Amino acid sequence: MARFAVWVPELFILGVVLGPIVLFAVLVRRRTKRFGYASAAAYLRAAPRSDAEKRDAADLALKGLVSCVLGLLFPPIVLVGLVPLFYGGRKLVYASMGLGLVDDADHPDE
User: Cα separation of 55 and 74, whole Å?
Assistant: First the structure.
């Protein structure tokens, strides 16, 4: 029993760091299917095209912000929270600039 007690802090820290990463991956995969994107990377790169996607981007940014604030209590969570904060914030900026109205596939890079 004493051997297991030595591993408890490490397992807790591993769960605190890996838990949010796995949760973020599951949430992105679910959103990818819901909005009809080919991959998670395509979803994260795309500008929001509908009001539902804009709400989803705001939700993603706020979840990242909450994770960063939680990082004040548990410092490793700050690094995990930066990922959804970045992608959600970027999507919100794209939406505020009106970039979701133009599909990137129709306009190749010049």
Answer: 28
Residue 77 tokens read as 């969570």
* Separation of first and last alpha carbons in the chain: 65
Answer for the pair 40, 81: CB distance below 8 angstroms, yes or no: no
Q: How far apart are CA 96 and CA 84, in angstroms?
A: 18
The CA-based angle 62-41-45, given to 5 degrees, is: 65
The Cα 89–Cα 78 span in angstroms is 16
pLDDT tens digit sequence for 10-69: 777 677 767 777 877 887 888 888 888 888 888 888 888 888 888 888 888 887 788 777
Neighbouring CB atoms inside 10 A of 45's CB total 14
Domain ranges for the chain: 2-102
Entry pTM: 0.60
